[in-house]
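Q: Hi! Curious about what Glucose-6-phosphate 1-dehydrogenase looks like structurally. Here's the sequence.
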Amino acid sequence: MDSLTFVLFGATGDLAKRKIFPSLFNLFLDKKMPDSLTIIGLGRREWSDEVFQKHVEKSLQSFSERSKNVDAYKIKEFLRFFHYRPLDVTDQENYKQLLNVIQKYEQELSIPENRLFYLSVAPEFFDVIALNIKKSGLGSSKGWKRLVIEKPFGHDLKSAQELNAKLREAFEEDEIYLIDHYLGKPMVQNLEALAFANPMLQALWSNKHISNIQITASETVGVEERADYYDQAGAIRDMVQNHLLQLVMLTAMQQPEKLSADEIRRQKIRVLEHLRPLQLDDVGKNLVRGQYSLGEINGESVPSYTAEPGIKPSSMNDTFIAARLWIDDAFWGGVPFYIRTGKRMKEKSTRIVIEFKNTISDLYKEKNEKTPPNLLIIEISPNESVLLQFNSKNPLNNSKIEPIKVTFSANKKDVPEAYELLLFDALNGDSTFFVQWKEVELSWKWVQPILEAFEQNALLLHGYSAGTMGPRAAEQLLEEDGFNWW
Ligand SMILES: NC(=O)C1=CN([C@@H]2O[C@H](COP(=O)(O)OP(=O)(O)OC[C@H]3O[C@@H](n4cnc5c(N)ncnc54)[C@H](OP(=O)(O)O)[C@@H]3O)[C@@H](O)[C@H]2O)C=CC1
Ligand SMILES: O=C1O[C@H](COP(=O)(O)O)[C@@H](O)[C@H](O)[C@H]1O
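A: Let's find out. The predicted structure is below.
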């Protein structure tokens, strides 16, 4: 791995302490960091290196399991990478001073002018920072530069296009690493292997044998401390435009010629290009929008969305979306893809269920109402597993045909965090599991008519009680096609 300087904008913020520092620490313990590295944290706070290092140490104590079982000297060794510099991202002078600081460390440690800029700040600063990096000469021509960007990328198609145009004034496309943390989840990274490293599954992976695909990302949490952002975004922007469409792409993509970042991306983009666009008047037929009302989760009562701190009592924002998608190509034509996501649902679960067609003549129908279909269930989080559901006779139940499940599962504590895998890839210059602009743009294009339908109040906002799996209308969406959510 090349030696480099890691410049972290927003180093005093929430994401840095909860995800970035603990993930870097795991990489350090696993010897997956370059030998020569400087990490420069930035924020407006007037902190010294020592205060910043104490802050990083505290974040490890709070958010890193592995830090509990290591000797204190290892933590000290890790903290030596960290330096801090107060900087206001809107002040151009500050960038020139930053350049001097970076050059000083580069010379001291003989680090080449390779610089990774990680923007863990509010999205309104993404373009400001990128352009200031360019103007100040922080991106040196003597080494490489990379820009890692958090979500959200735009608020709609137009704002995303504008943001991309500004970023491209300062960085080349292949220097920009857009984070979608779902792509860092190990089971999501495993999807391609499931489909392409198993001849048995590959033979079945198309409309010939699959009747429908269901992707669920349900959460039990509410809006937490992010009311301002979430009330503007809703589930459609927060989860559907990015994470769920990424899962659709990875499930539906065809086998790439080789496993390179470019080839995989080409296949993902192909899926989006064949995704049937929604017209304004189709939206209501294919999409269910919901908002939670008061209810109970795990025995505790939880308030309605509009009673959450920071949410307007009159808010008509969506906290739940279910939708039916069609991919009009030779492989998936006729197979509905159903997606659903919501806050304050019954359980925390991200999973993909592939339901196979049931075309056998049913020899067993006298003893069964209907032979259950074969299913492939891919659990992404909170636990990881792959489960195949077959049918088998149960000698203890009058030899009825019953589903049996064959499961492979990983122990949760052995599975690396999404951010850890993504940070390692960014340090290494591997962009396979980062999102490329074209994917973002096509995703926004698909979502845009939905946003317009919402703005025109053309769609009912269904209520659902907190602690349920969403509005009844989401069940009906599948029932219309003869299916149900698994
Ligand atoms: N937190 C999370 O779980 C997730 C966050 N994200 C994304 O990550 C990014 C960061 O989020 P989060 O950490 O939660 O945000 P926070 O509000 O916790 O942190 C914001 C950071 O930006 C810095 N900052 C704000 N204004 C300026 C300025 N003018 N100049 C310099 N620094 C500034 C703050 O430093 P200071 O106050 O010292 O100036 C702070 O370090 C956002 O894009 C968010 O959407 C994405 C997924 C999850
Ligand atoms: O990006 C986001 O994802 C989380 C859910 O992530 P998960 O890894 O816990 O499934 C969601 O809570 C948040 O609103 C959204 O911004």
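A: A fun detail: Residues 10-15, 43-45, 87-90, 120-123, 150-151 surround NDP (ligand 1) (CB under 6 Å).
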